[in-house]
Specification:
The structure holds two protein chains of two kinds.
Chain A (H helix, E strand, L loop, with lengths): L4 E6 L5 H15 L3 E6 L6 H7 L4 E5 L2 H4 L3 H15 L3 E5 L4 H12 L3 E9 L7 E6 L4 E7 L6 E4 L16 E4 L11 E5 L13 E5 L9 H10 L3 E4 L1 H5 L20 E5 L5 H4 L7 E6 L6 H4 L2 E4 L2 H14 L1
Parallel strand pairs in A: 1-2, 1-4, 2-3, 3-9, 4-8, 5-8, 11-12, 11-13, 13-14, 14-15
Antiparallel strand pairs in A: 5-6, 6-7
Helix pairs in contact in A: 4-5, 6-10
Chain B lengths: L1 E5 L2 E3 L1 H10 L18 E3 L1 H15 L5 E8 L3 H10 L3 E6 L7 H14 L5 E5 L10 H9 L3 E10 L4 E8 L2 E8 L2 E5 L11 H9 L3 E2 L2 H4 L8 E7 L8 E2 L5 H14 L5
Parallel strand pairs in B: 1-4, 1-6, 4-5, 5-11, 6-10, 7-10
Antiparallel strand pairs in B: 2-3, 7-8, 8-9
Helix pairs in contact in B: 3-6, 4-5
The chains are: A alpha/beta, B alpha/beta.
Chain lengths: 321, 266
Amino acid sequence: MTGPVVVCTWAGEGEAAELLTLGRTVSEALGTDLVWLVIGVTADDAAETAKRYGATSIDQIDNNRVAASEPDATVEALSQNCSKRSPRMLLFSQTFNVRLIAPRLGGRLGSPVVMNATGIDAESGKLLRVTASAYGGDTQVVYEIQGDAMPIAALMPSAVEPQKSTAQTSPAVDVFEPDLSGVEERIRVLEPAHAEGPRLEDAQTIVAGGRGLGSPENFRLVEELAEALGGMPAASRPIVDDGWTDPSRQVGLTGKIARPALYIAAGISGASQHMAGCAASKTIVAINSDPDAAIFRYARYGIVGDCLELLPELTRAVQER
Amino acid sequence: MRIVVCAKEVLDPDAVNNYALSGGLAIGDDGRTITSSAIPRLMNAYDEQAIEAALRIKEAGADHTVTVVSAGPDPAAILKHAVALGADEIVSIPIEDAGIDYHVVANLLAAYVRSSEGAGLILCGRQASDDDQGVVPALIAESLDMPLISIARAVALSAGGTVRVTRVTPDGNEIVEADCPAVVTISNEFGEPRYPTASMTIRARRTPATVVTMSDLGDVDLAARVTLVEQSVPIVQGNCEVIDGESPSVIARDLVRRLHEDGILS
């Protein structure tokens, strides 16, 4: 029998349900097992989640260095786990750390690596095909996997709708202890990152501004509406590049990936580079003076008009309620 | 120290974006190649920032050289640009296949570093703006057994041969250090690259690229790991309700009322 499909998540990070759903479709198509590799301390409900999404077993790596995604330790630990499991395929949720770790592991194991994956087409006896986003989401590409080495793919957030398994499994937890005694971390952290205040990634309400604001002073209108809503202000890449606001506020492919309940985009055209960071929002409201702006294709509600007039009125309307 | 910067020629992503949004992006009969002829080819912008990072390190004092290497069907134009920016040496690895697997590109670039004088520091853009994969720097690092520091907004070399990098992480800036040789990827937060001066552009015309062929590189793994078989413009199904009214104030109240009704605002 061919090796299992292994899906790897860090406890409390990434979207396990989405990744398990994708992993299950692949493992079912190939007629093999689905193993959920959890890094860090599994939540109490992990076994329940695994059962619901059809994982055959859970592997757990409870090691501080791997939990902290120290690159050398993590690549070595995952490499050892792959030696033990001989997976048919290894899947990750694409987080900031996975963008570094997945391709390094691929280099270590001689694996094909596809990042920004949005789907996988698997059929027994045929080559695997991985769909991925390219050109900041302007195009989608399909890569055919070649050779015998275990492929690695990293799934973009919100690319897959979680679906529970119809068949119930009763997965057991197996603790995997990597031997990291010989691994010295080559990168030394001199000053760790410390998030100053709340993070866009966790915000429930975001008001984002773009070029349509006209000038840097007007970013204050975005901040005022965000404050009235108890949310956070954000920005598209062009105005961050021009210094209208701090890079930590940038939403998009090369910025933050946000998934708020409400995302109000003011004066943002909706280039896919930006949408990659906010398409997962539950409700998008678009304000743009161009009725043909791409942002309206993603929006639940749209207002065709000048965001400089509308933002203060929205702030007032929110404050009045 | 020898600093090697890896650069890639890409289709101008802004032009691709304009075509994609207007519905006019042409894909060839092979189903995977963008054929819209008016799209300029240029150096991947992150790679340009990687060259800028190398030049700033060089200007900071010690005795460094900057080599820019590119593997592709016709790297000549972007390599001239690299000289105009200030590169000391340019190296071309010609490849016939424009759609070559990025795993093979990484093997070629690593083999070049190994077969030339090596490198104390390898700088790359964080990803290419065409495939967005960002995998090549990690594959080079693994192949050459170097540490990889990703998504840098600032890079400095110390006299003791360590590289100090400020990384842009979701939690803010992180400052890390590693012993050279190392691979560092540069992000857009690094800042604008310089513009070539007229005299540098003239110098660029007179500076030939060193051409490296497969046989110069020795034993390189050329087996494809992935092949690009399809490319298309994804279709987004719009479901937008346009809110209209006699004044911005009326529209604003209408929107806020609906968001309350939908349970999005409490």
